[in-house]
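User: I'm curious whether this sequence folds into something compact or stays loose and floppy. Could you predict its structure so I can see for myself?
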Amino acid sequence: MRWKEEMLQFETYREAEVWADSITNEIHGRSITGYCTPDFKVATILAFYLAENPDYRVRSATVHHDEEIYYQVWVEILDSL
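Assistant: Here's the prediction. I'll summarize afterward.
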Protein backbone atom coordinates (compact mmCIF):
# COMPACT_ATOMS: atom_id res chain seq x y z
CA MET A 1 0.00 0.00 0.00
CA ARG A 2 1.46 3.33 -1.05
CA TRP A 3 -0.16 6.26 0.76
CA LYS A 4 -0.14 9.97 0.19
CA GLU A 5 -1.13 12.22 3.06
CA GLU A 6 -1.79 15.95 2.91
CA MET A 7 -3.28 18.33 5.42
CA LEU A 8 -4.92 20.69 2.93
CA GLN A 9 -8.52 21.74 3.48
CA PHE A 10 -10.55 23.52 0.85
CA GLU A 11 -13.37 26.01 1.29
CA THR A 12 -15.48 24.93 -1.69
CA TYR A 13 -16.48 21.68 -3.29
CA ARG A 14 -15.17 22.94 -6.62
CA GLU A 15 -11.65 23.38 -5.19
CA ALA A 16 -11.89 19.94 -3.58
CA GLU A 17 -13.07 18.46 -6.88
CA VAL A 18 -10.08 19.79 -8.79
CA TRP A 19 -7.75 18.46 -6.10
CA ALA A 20 -9.45 15.05 -5.95
CA ASP A 21 -9.17 14.78 -9.73
CA SER A 22 -5.39 15.17 -9.50
CA ILE A 23 -5.21 12.49 -6.79
CA THR A 24 -7.36 10.20 -8.95
CA ASN A 25 -4.78 10.55 -11.72
CA GLU A 26 -2.01 9.51 -9.33
CA ILE A 27 -3.97 6.43 -8.30
CA HIS A 28 -4.79 5.56 -11.93
CA GLY A 29 -1.07 5.90 -12.66
CA ARG A 30 -0.44 3.58 -9.69
CA SER A 31 2.13 5.84 -8.06
CA ILE A 32 -0.08 5.63 -4.94
CA THR A 33 -2.96 3.40 -3.88
CA GLY A 34 -4.33 5.41 -0.97
CA TYR A 35 -4.90 8.96 0.21
CA CYS A 36 -5.41 10.44 3.67
CA THR A 37 -6.87 13.91 4.28
CA PRO A 38 -8.62 15.92 6.99
CA ASP A 39 -10.96 17.32 4.29
CA PHE A 40 -14.21 15.36 4.05
CA LYS A 41 -15.00 17.00 0.71
CA VAL A 42 -11.82 15.70 -0.95
CA ALA A 43 -12.30 12.19 0.45
CA THR A 44 -15.92 12.01 -0.69
CA ILE A 45 -15.25 13.24 -4.21
CA LEU A 46 -12.17 11.03 -4.54
CA ALA A 47 -14.18 7.94 -3.55
CA PHE A 48 -16.82 8.70 -6.18
CA TYR A 49 -14.23 9.31 -8.90
CA LEU A 50 -12.45 6.05 -8.10
CA ALA A 51 -15.70 4.07 -7.97
CA GLU A 52 -16.21 4.83 -11.66
CA ASN A 53 -13.36 2.43 -12.49
CA PRO A 54 -14.62 -1.18 -12.60
CA ASP A 55 -11.07 -2.48 -11.91
CA TYR A 56 -11.06 -0.94 -8.42
CA ARG A 57 -12.63 -1.95 -5.17
CA VAL A 58 -12.80 1.36 -3.29
CA ARG A 59 -12.37 1.35 0.48
CA SER A 60 -12.64 4.15 3.01
CA ALA A 61 -12.15 4.70 6.71
CA THR A 62 -12.40 7.44 9.29
CA VAL A 63 -9.45 7.72 11.66
CA HIS A 64 -9.70 9.63 14.93
CA HIS A 65 -6.32 10.83 16.17
CA ASP A 66 -6.14 13.12 19.20
CA GLU A 67 -8.93 15.60 18.46
CA GLU A 68 -8.58 15.44 14.68
CA ILE A 69 -10.51 13.35 12.17
CA TYR A 70 -8.80 12.02 9.05
CA TYR A 71 -10.44 10.38 6.08
CA GLN A 72 -8.71 7.59 4.20
CA VAL A 73 -9.62 6.40 0.71
CA TRP A 74 -7.77 3.57 -0.99
CA VAL A 75 -8.24 1.06 -3.76
CA GLU A 76 -7.74 -2.64 -4.17
CA ILE A 77 -6.91 -3.29 -7.79
CA LEU A 78 -9.08 -6.20 -8.89
CA ASP A 79 -6.97 -7.27 -11.87
CA SER A 80 -4.17 -8.15 -9.46
CA LEU A 81 -6.27 -10.10 -6.95
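Summary: The longest strand covers residues 56-65. Strands lie at 3-5, 34-37, 56-65, 68-77.
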